[in-house]
């Protein structure tokens, strides 16, 4: 090797080392918000070679994209995101949605691209970004406010929620059960049984349209904590706390244990490792579920936002060292409505997020709100109705076998109030995925915008 070549090779190697970067992207959202669909689509868009499908992802649009691959060596002790299996569901002759997120999982990949900077291109033929994608339930973020509540405040909060119209009937038998409990008794079997009943109640809530705010999040989605005694926790009735007794004392201790052994470690060991965060929100599902559901969704989003609201003097900084610099709140499943409704959908979430952000003094994160569909299941078009062109969708509605053209309904321009809910019932249809050849880029709406916001600056 001539010295010039050698020097340039060494320079390139050095440059390569210096320019290699790492990024952890968290993907969250409440159950059913679209995390699995998003990650599957994002991975497929990055791993396939059709740059045409991502016109607003600058590294692809500027033809600097060299490709991506899943790292052969994944962390052996971490659950792996089942990307390959998920594709199999979408590839079926009658395509199905892949199974939703339960617990957390991750996948690491290496992205290779050419730098946008001429100087960097001289130093190195390509740059690499090691990207770690982490999928975890948004329910775990809903535990955050518990850190600032006492056990009795938490019980008050839970039972106020369980009195809401869409929850009352579901909670009735557990409430009755609690009334029968002897508060002086803490024998292990009856405590275990009572906690199992509370867990069943949380499961029932998670199947109830619009019941989003389920605490403790780990009881509902325990992951590796399944079966551990730290999850033996339930909210006793507020009137029982005044009576006192061994069971009250035990639950107060269990509450503190849960905060110390579950909530704090989650923030310290998991959340603090994230650089970027996507929060998916299914607004259309909440509109379908009605007024109480929508109000609970709003409450949940505001609670989730609190996890990113850490300024220099914020109490959260004492719990963990956050480093998230960008947060994207995205309304998922935009393909359920016609494109002319996307702006209204985005405005709903924007109003909510912006209102909250304007109230907090210190923001270290950059926030963005957008509307997307990870896997577009509909084609937008128009039909003539009473002499006028009207926007419509063509898709296979869930449970049906053939695609139909239909008008999916309008998204309100403001958060609907009681009056609107009494006069109107929202009914946005769920859709089956469209047939897919397994090769071409999965159809989507604004996945390129989302990846540009979340990764674009790291691929410059
Ligand atoms: P997770 O619980 O957050 O992992 O949610 P999933 O990703 O499993 O999504 C839940 C359901 O929402 C899926 O089974 C689909 O029915 C629907 N869904 C998710 N993403 C999309 C999308 O981009 N388009 C459409 N039409 N439906 C979606």
Write down how many β-strands occur, each being a DSSP E stretch of 2 or more residues.
10
Rounded Rg: 24 Å
Helix content: 40-55%
Structural class: alpha/beta
Poorly predicted parts? 1-18
Q: How many separate helices?
A: 17
Name the bound molecules.
Answer: guanosine-5'-diphosphate
Taken as a percent bin, the fraction of beta residues is 15-25%
Amino-to-carboxy terminus distance: 32 Å
Report the biggest beta sheet as strand number plus sense, adding barrel if it closes: 7 strands, mixed
Mean pLDDT: 90
Q: Which overall shape is indicated by the principal axes computed on the Cα atoms?
A: globular
Major sheet strand order: 2-3-4-1-5-6-7
Spell the H/E element sequence. Answer: HEHHEHEHEHHHHHHEHHHEHEEEEHH
Topology:
Elements: H1 3-19, E1 21-29, H2 35-47, H3 58-61, E2 65-70, H4 83-91, E3 105-113, H5 118-123, E4 127-135, H6 151-162, H7 165-180, H8 188-206, H9 217-220, H10 238-243, H11 246-270, E5 276-281, H12 283-289, H13 291-306, H14 316-319, E6 326-331, H15 342-359, E7 366-371, E8 379-385, E9 388-395, E10 404-406, H16 418-423, H17 447-455
Parallel strand pairs: 1-4, 1-5, 5-6, 6-7
Antiparallel strand pairs: 2-3, 3-4, 8-9, 9-10
Helix pairs in contact: 7-8, 12-13
The site of guanosine-5'-diphosphate has 21 residues, from helix 2.
